[in-house]
Amino acid sequence: YPKAFIFDLDGVITDTSEFHYLAWKKLADEIGIKIDREFNEKLKGISRMESLDLILALSPSNNNLSADEKERLASKKNEHYQELIQSINATNILPGIEVLLKEIRRNNIKIALGSASKNATEVLKQLGITEYFDFVVDASTVTKGKPDPETFTTAADRLHIPYEACVGVEDAKAGVEAINKAEMFSVGVGEIKHLGDAKYVVQDTSELVFEEIVKRYNDWNL
Ligand code: G6P
Ligand code: MG
């Protein structure tokens, strides 16, 4: 059996990745840049400022914004985002997730969160699932975001679990890369064309079944 599960938040535990996308789209509209869902795949898992930089790079006229101006735009996106997540609650937990968390707990396996979001703690609170997590790694905990492995290795270190005994669950390409670099077992949730590097890919969270993940983990760990 694995000894710890480390979950990404947005797009794995909850449907907030859609709200991140809508907030970025609104900000991009305001500054005259078009983004779509395909482009949004690149924004998944990376920090707020890195996302802004990728969006600004789509339009040469925004090439030399001052640091202050970029801060202002990033804050504005966060205001849009916070407005969208204001009313989230347990109904925003993705299918299968709460059953999975319970099953992991029942088997005395540790659970951590590994998120790039500064809103992670607040989102967990609103969903009412804070108590499942033994440790929360968010944007304030690490210096190097995904695809660097630091998010996942920090969680494992704090739980005192060896990396090869950890399962990481991600919906972002950058996140899967981070898990693989940490030499943990990577589970991808979403389309295989984005998550092909994951050791095990499921299409959506309803397919995240404890026994199946453990079986795949054991095969990998032989
Ligand atoms: C996660 C999401 C990204 C988001 C990032 C920063 O990684 O997948 O879409 O941009 O967190 O979130 P924040 O709430 O700090 O702006
Ligand atoms: Mg995610």
In short:
By secondary structure, the protein is an alpha/beta fold. The protein has 10 helices and 6 strands.
What average pLDDT do the residues reach?
A: 97
Fraction in helix:
40-55%
Secondary structure tally: strands? 6
Major β-sheet profile:
6 strands, parallel
Total of helices = 10
Shape: globular
- Sequence stretches where pLDDT stays below 50 over 5 or more residues: none
Which quaternary structure do these chains form?
A: single chain
Query: Which range does the strand content fall in?
Result: 5-15%
- Class based on secondary structure composition and strand pairing: alpha/beta
Order of helices and strands: EHHHHHEHEHEHEHEH
End-to-end distance: 11 Å
Bound molecules: 6-O-phosphono-alpha-D-glucopyranose, magnesium ion
Tell me about this structure.
The chain is an alpha/beta fold. It has ten helices and six strands. It has helices at 16-30, 37-40, 48-56, 67-85, 97-106, 120-127, 150-159, 173-181, 192-195, 210-220; strands at 4-7, 110-114, 135-137, 166-170, 185-189, 200-202. It has a six-stranded parallel sheet, sandwiched between helices. Helix 6 links the parallel strand 2 (110-114) and strand 3 (135-137). The longest helix has 19 residues, at 67-85. It starts with a strand and ends with a helix. Magnesium ion binds at residues 8, 10-12, 17, 44-45, 171-172, 175. Belongs to the HAD-like hydrolase superfamily. CbbY/CbbZ/Gph/YieH family. It comes from Ornithinibacillus halotolerans. Its cofactor is Mg(2+).
